[in-house]
Specification:
This protein has 173 residues and is an alpha/beta fold. It has 2 domains: 2-105, Rossmann fold (3-Layer(aba) Sandwich), CATH 3.40.50; 108-172, no CATH class. The chain is 42% helix and 18% strand. It contains 8 helices and 8 strands; from the N terminus they run E-H-E-H-E-H-E-H-E-E-H-H-E-H-E-H. It has helices at residues 13-23, 42-54, 67-74, 83-88, 107-118, 123-127, 138-148, 167-172; strands spanning 2-5, 32-35, 60-63, 80-81, 93-97, 100-104, 131-134, 160-163. A 6-stranded mixed β-sheet has the order 2-1-3-5-6-4.
Length: 173
């Protein structure tokens, strides 16, 4: 399995993964880092996705910083994309199923669970609070989408503000 990031050797997941693998009894497996520059060239993303797709020993990858750029550069290489991946325009999980390359976005799920774990019930409705998200990357896109969902009825922030260094990312979001 691969971990696609910027400086993967320094990431906590490299220390956590072996413990998870033992706990889950995954057997002989390892997580290998693939470092790419932030906002790398589309060709580099396509090389990485192409390698994972064609290599029979590659089972998939976890994608961090490059979720949006990777999918933008290589969307046509995926045989399947989950609903969140299509909606968010990002891929945080690459896997293979029956010879097909599958992409998924997991931030909407994990971000929502994390937020719900520490906010009191009906927080937004009771407090009338606003939300401020720093950055317009994958996690902020996921949180914004979750917070704005109509099924929350009145339990949504009264306003959502997003800051980012790149005006283009803000406009896109």
């Amino acid at each position: 399995m691969y971990f696609i990031g910027v400086s993967t050797t320094r990431s906590m997941i490299m220390r956590v993964f072996p413990a998870w693998a033992r706990y889950l009894e995954l057997g002989d497996c390892q997580l290998k880092g693939i470092d790419l520059k932030q906002h790398d060239l589309p060709e580099r993303y396509r090389q990485v996705v192409g390698f994972i797709k064609s290599d029979p020993l590659s089972l998939g990858a976890l994608v961090t910083t490059h979720k949006i750029d990777l999918l933008r550069a290589s969307r046509d290489m995926f045989d399947e994309l989950d609903d969140f991946g299509a909606e968010m325009g990002e891929v945080s999980s690459i896997s293979k199923k029956d010879g097909r390359l599958c992409g998924g976005a997991k931030d909407p799920i994990s971000s929502a669970l994390a937020l719900e774990a520490f906010l009191p019930a009906q927080h937004w409705e009771i407090s009338g609070a606003q939300a401020f998200l720093m950055g317009a990357g994958g996690s902020s896109v996921a949180l914004c989408s979750y917070l704005a969902r109509p099924q929350h009825d009145e339990n949504r922030p009264s306003k959502i503000f997003v800051s980012n260094r790149s005006p283009a990312r803000l406009k896109e979001m």
